[in-house]
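USER:
Make up one protein:

ASSISTANT:
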Amino acid sequence: MAMETSDWTACDYSHNVTFFYQLVGKNISEVWTSRDFLVIGLGLTVCLIVVLANLLVMVAIFMNRRFHFPIYYLLANMAAADLFAGIAYANLMLNTGPWTGRLTKKQWFIRGALIDISLTASVANLLAVAVERHQTIVTMQLHSTMTKRRVVLLIVCIWAVGIAMGLLPSMFWNCECDLKDCSTIAPLYSRRFLIFWAVLNLLTFFIMVAVYARIFVYVRRQSRYASQHSSEMRHNQTVVNLMKTISMVLGAFVICWTPGLMTLLLDGVLGKDSHAHAYEKFCLVIAECNSLVNPIIYSLRDTEMRRTFKWILCCLCRRRAGGPRETSPVQFDSPQPEENIGCVQKSEDKAMCMPQHANDKADSWTMPVV
C-alpha cells in the first residue's frame, strides 16, 4: 500500500500528455469527424472576427484624441486582452482533437497559459476600471487625474499579473508530482490550482459589483442635488451613461465567464464525479463570445466610438477601391468650431486618412456621449 501511494505522489516527468488524459478518463479522438471540422471552422471564424473587432477598438481609441483619457486607455487595454484571447482560442482550435495527443507537455502548457493570461488580464483590467471610475466620480471629476506614466505602469502590472498566473501551473502548480490531484478538464493542471483560480476570479467579480453598486448609489444621490442646475445635471447624465456602458461590459463578462469558472470550481472540488469534461466545451464557447461582445457594446452605446469606427472603415474602403478621396460627412459633436473627420488630400497621387481638426488643441475637458 505504501508503495502504491508512493507511485501516485512521486515526481515522474517522463509521462506524456496522452498518459494524463488516460489517467483522468478523458479520451483523445484518433480520427477527425465532421463535427470536429465544423467546430474548428466556426471557432476560427469567430476568432478572426474577435481579433479584427478589438483591433478596430484599439485603433479608434488611438486615432480619436477625445479618447485620450485614462478610462479609455484601460478600455483599449481590455480590447487588447480580448484580442489576445482571440489569438489564444485560435491556437487552441489548431491544437485540439487528434492533434492534442501530438503535443509535448511544454506545448500543452503554453496552450493553456495563453487562455489563462487573457482571462486574468481581462479580470484585472475590469478591476482597474472599477477603481478608476470610483476615484474620479467620488471626487466629482469626469476624468481621472492619473498621469500617462501611471496608466502605463498600471497596464504593465495588469499584464505582469496575467503572465504570472499563466506560468504558475506550468512551472510550479501542476499534478506531475501528485497524480491524484489531476483535473479532468485540464489533465495536467492541479485541481487545487483550479479552485484557487476560480475562487480568486469570482471574488474579484464580487468586489467589482460592490464597487459599481456604491458608485451608482453615490451618483443617484448626487443627481438629486444637481437637478436644479442644468450644467451639473448634464455632467451627471454623462457619468451615468458612461457607467451604464462599463456596467454592460462587466455584466457581459460575468455572464460569459461564470459558467466556465463554476465548472472549474466543480472539477476542482469533485474531480471525476463532477463530469465537468462533458460540458466544458459549451462553457468555452460562451466564454469566447465575451471577446466579441465588448466591441458591440462600445458601438451601440458610444456615439463617438461608432462614428470613429465608420470613419476608419470608410477610409480603408476608399484606399482599397482607389476611388476619390472625399471628406467624410461624419463629424464629432463638439462645442469647439466645426471639426470634420475624413480623408484629407495630401497630394495628387496620395491621400492620407486622418481627423481634420479645426482647432489643434485636444478637447481635454470634453467627453463623448456614451
